[in-house]
Amino acid sequence: MNEASPDAPASHARARNPWLVAAAVVVPTFMEVLDTTIANVALRYIAGGLSASNNDSEWVITSYLAANATILPISGWLSARLGRRNYFLGSIAVFTLASGLCGIASSLEELILFRILQGLAGGGLQPSSQAILIDSFPPAKQGAAMTVFAIAGLIAPVIGPTLGGYLTVFYDWRWIFYINIPIGILGIAAAWLMVEDPPYLKATTARLRSQPLNLDYIGLGLLILGVSCWEILLSKGQEWDWYNDPTWRAQAMAIGFGISLVGLIIHSWRSSDPVVNFRPLANRNFAACSLIIFCVYAVLYGSSTTLPALLQTLFGYDAYASGLVLSPAGGGSVVMLLTAGFLLGRGVDARYLIVAGLLLMTAGSYWMAVMNLEISPLQAVWPRVVTFMGISLIFAPLTVAAFQGIPQELRGAAVGLFALLRNEGGSVGTSLAKTFEQRRAQFHSARVGDYLDPFNPHVREFLEQTRASFLQVTGDPAGSQLAAVQTLEALRAQQAESLAFFDDFWLFGVVAFSLIALVFLMKPSVAEKGAHIAAE
């Protein structure tokens, strides 16, 4: 086996305070991650404002995610050829411009076009900022660096629904895009002053620029086709009834994704300079961490959409009120992010922190799964706080473990792949939660209905008491009987729906607990004073 140690940061990073560099790159990354969730609560307002249907307004989310996912795996390729600093600054500038255009869109078609542009620009911010942090901090401080990055990666999705709900309810949905403009301008100024490419990347960029442009058109085409089919399938699959779709739209998307993925993998391994490089997955730690982060973000985004849907559907909360229930989780997340950074700096093996985080995620999800419709808002807050404490405890150790042992020449590709899987996990979690909830609602509706027959004395007693109450108000015997039956049916539907929502959290707990097995496949990962791990 060969020994591979993390590379020391370049001399330019030592000339600049790495914490100032971190502040410069985290702000625009926070802005981009925020936009993955901030528009979710505003879809019906956007549909009304642009005279579109609610189903059509979902393309505002789908178009952004598809464009974002297309750029993520090739961000390393673009950084190497354009220079990471230039690419990072350009991404912020275009993202800010696209945000302003989204705010002034006069039709749904315009908004979708500008969201695609926003997603293409924003896709480069996460992997670029992560690579900048890795190169700016010495090995002993990389745990702290990943903690800073986690603030953007975890806190932004937490506050996104709350901020989006507040701006939409009290101002206008267009402000969820306008708010990016001052943040983007600040991010451009800070990055211009603080960010500089390390010498190894400058040498790589100079070498590539001296050569003829050899763009991997085949790989890029397969990537765009595969990601587009995948995101459309996830977004519209439940609406199209998945593989039972009589129009074959869902089946066509699945086939297109499968063919594109297989073709892209084969092409990547046969090409000397592929647009998407899968070689980092040969590293055992990186492969295990990539699968874990995929599933963790599925739980993160799945729970972040399931809980607001539960509160707004069955508890009658508006977008802002439901967002307030989600927000306290951010406080626990910050505490655990700092704790993880401190422990990593003290030489604690990242694997132990990952297991602890997964157990917290399991506990929080199970706690929410055993709730009922009699809970108060505070009772819904604490399970989410525990879940997000677990996710936050995982994030920095997982990132450190993933990138230790990855050679510098593959770091850009590894960062892009890691970010792609992280974001796609969120898309899968959102779609899976929605599909699972609807299927379980049908199941529970049938099971609850098994006991609602006229021979059940409790049913007869409920109908009689309810009929008497309606009769006292209306004086209509026939109408009162019908109203009593309708009330019972509404209660059945409500209870079935609640059980389905709580089943989502049960599923999240099972996923989190099952990931612990992957940790035992990983090698020791310690971020302490230049410590290294063996790379096979």
- Quick one: overall form? globular
**How would you characterize the largest beta sheet?**
2 strands, antiparallel
DSSP helix fraction: over 70%
Which CATH class of the largest domain applies here? Answer: Mainly Alpha
Question: How does this structure look, described?
Answer:
The protein is mainly alpha-helical. The protein has 24 helices and two strands. The chain has helices spanning about 10-15, 20-35, 45-50, 55, 60-70, 75-80, 85-105, 110-120, 125-135, 140-170, 175-180, 180-195, 200-210, 215-235, 250-270, 285-315, 320-325, 330-345, 350-370, 375-405, 410-450, 455-475, 475-515, 515-520, and strands at about 1-5, 535. The chain has a two-stranded antiparallel sheet. The chain starts with a strand and ends with a strand.
Helices and strands in order:
Blueprint: E1 2-4, H1 11-15, H2 18-34, H3 43-49, H4 54-57, H5 59-71, H6 75-82, H7 84-103, H8 108-122, H9 125-136, H10 142-170, H11 175-178, H12 180-194, H13 199-209, H14 217-236, H15 249-270, H16 284-314, H17 319-326, H18 329-345, H19 350-369, H20 377-403, H21 408-449, H22 457-474, H23 477-514, H24 516-519, E2 533-535
Antiparallel strand pairs: 1-2
